[in-house]
Amino acid sequence: MKKYLLHHKDGSLWAKGFMTGTQSDGYWEWFRKDGTKMRSGSFRKGIQTGEWTTYDKKGQVHKVTYIKD
Question: pLDDT by residue (tens digit) across 49-58?
């Protein structure tokens, strides 16, 4: 697995996580332009799995979703 970073057009961090080849793998986080966390969760070979959390505009937990393997 390699660490992977994506950026908004203004250069701020949009997402960070891990890739295995061309597939998302492991824990990922997405951020708004102001730096607050927007979403987080894990992938297994490119497929969402386990607990996924959505955050409100203040970075507080808004919703937690469980995705079955």
Answer: 999 999 999 9
Residues forming a β-bridge with 23: 20
Residues spanned by the domain of 54: 2-67
Count how many domains the chain has. 1
41, 55 contact by CB (below 8 A): no
The CA distance from 34 to 24, in Å, is 24
pTM: 0.90
Q: What single-letter amino acid sits at 46?
A: G
First to last CA, the chain: 20
Read off the pLDDT of each residue in 8-36 and give the average, rounded to a whole number: 96
